[in-house]
Amino acid sequence: MANVFYATAWALLPPLVAIMLTLITKEVYSSLFIGIVCGALMNTNFSVGKTIVHIFKEGFLVSITDMSNMSVIVFVIILGAIVKLLEWSGGAMAFGHWVALRIKTKIGAQLATMLLGVLFFIDDGFSCLSVSNIMRPVCDEKGISREKLAYIVDSTAAPVCILMPISSWGAAVSAYVSDGNGLYWFIRTIPYNFYAICTLIFVIVIIVSNKDFGPMAKAREVISKETQDHYGTKASYLVIPFIVLITACIIGMLYTGGLFEGASFYTAVSESNAPLGFVYGSSIALIFTIVFYSVNKVLTYKRCIEALPEGAKMMMPVILILIFAWTLKIEISQLGTGYFVSNVVKTLGPGFMHFIPAIVFAFSAFLAFSSGTSWGTFGILIPIVIEMVPLTEELGVISLAACLAGSVFGDHCSPISDTTIMSSAGSGCNHLSHVSTQVPYALVVAAISLVLYIIVGFCV
């Protein structure tokens, strides 16, 4: 029996239910699950028996066993173990003291956090988890709220990656442009990616002005109460393992793209499997860290092994939310939510040529917000945008940039986005507190971006 809800306005209901319940109840697990149930009921035309089977057989089990998703889970677990080792070694606290001695102000600590996020341009998820865990002790010592830390981390993850051709995002976007010149067109969009550019500028302004507004102004300063074993007091106990982690993850990503089998650097980046590469890299980094600490008697071998389950336990909340979010995305995909939105865009486009960039920005933002995924939005809307306006026309390049920018904005605000989840988890911040404090800032930048897209739409 055909799904009567497929690619209709009703297909928007499951993500809207999940998002609204999350905002109302301030509880993310049950809200996501209710959204999943809603989607499963609609996918089975409200057959209760089939719904139960659908939720688990075609929902949770599919999301967990997906190779890419499982790679993310394994990477998060390994990274959790490494973070726990860095904490127990005293390296994290020593690095915090080292930075604190050189950075005297809150502004300096926040700018350092942003700079670190810019340096981790290779992948947004990697940036969110790594930067937040490294800078959390520093920001705690300077009296910076966890919400502010999560905002800075989140706002220098995807916005930086979408501006960098040599990144997992550049590779993904390039793959959606089928004329063989994807990287060229991606580079052409960079000057028009107003949301990403304005977000980075806005973060700097907020930091330097030291003026917060909205819920962020009420965010409380939290001094870390995490216990640490003082087996070592050298910043190198954090810096060396972390350099190995970054290097190994980049090499791992390039390895999955065939760099060591004769592929060019560009081909290796564009065809890489970033999550799997990060599993390889983080595994090597974990082994190195255990050996490094054991040989230097920073931690005993037994203590190093104890960090494995403790790190996994620390990351369990983010893993659970990711699994729920992925399952909801499966239900949304099977309902054709993205196709409904894209069909509306296609219908409106030809009649509003000068407004196409603004329209594309708005629709891609809504789709990414509802689904919690930028990349999924890219896959659905980029082919349609290119069909509406050829890339050979400047308006086509601007429209493609608007699609990328809107997707990043929607993903940035969505409570079911994996980067939003990882930013709050890594920062030790309540997930919904991060969402509520970040959204007003993102909306200001989005409004500016929308105006800019309207202006350039009439200028070309």
Descriptive overview:
The chain has 460 residues and is mainly α. Helix content is 76%, strand content 0%. It contains 23 helices and no strands. It has helices at residues 13-25, 28-43, 48-65, 67-89, 91-102, 106-119, 124-141, 146-155, 158-161, 168-176, 182-189, 194-209, 215-218, 236-256, 265-270, 274-295, 301-335, 337-348, 356-371, 374-388, 394-413, 418-427, 431-459. Helix 5 (91-102) packs across helix 7 (124-141) and helix 12 (194-209) crosses helix 23. The longest helix has 35 residues, at 301-335.
What percent strand?
A: under 5%
What's the helical proportion of residues?
over 70%
| Uncertain residue ranges | 226-232
Kindly state the number of beta strands.
Answer: 0
Termini separation comes to: 48 Å
User: Which structural class matches the secondary elements?
Assistant: mainly alpha
Helix-strand pattern: HHHHHHHHHHHHHHHHHHHHHHH
Q: Mind describing the biggest β-sheet?
A: none
Number of continuous helical runs = 23
Shape: globular
C-alpha Rg, in Å? 22 Å
Mean pLDDT: 83
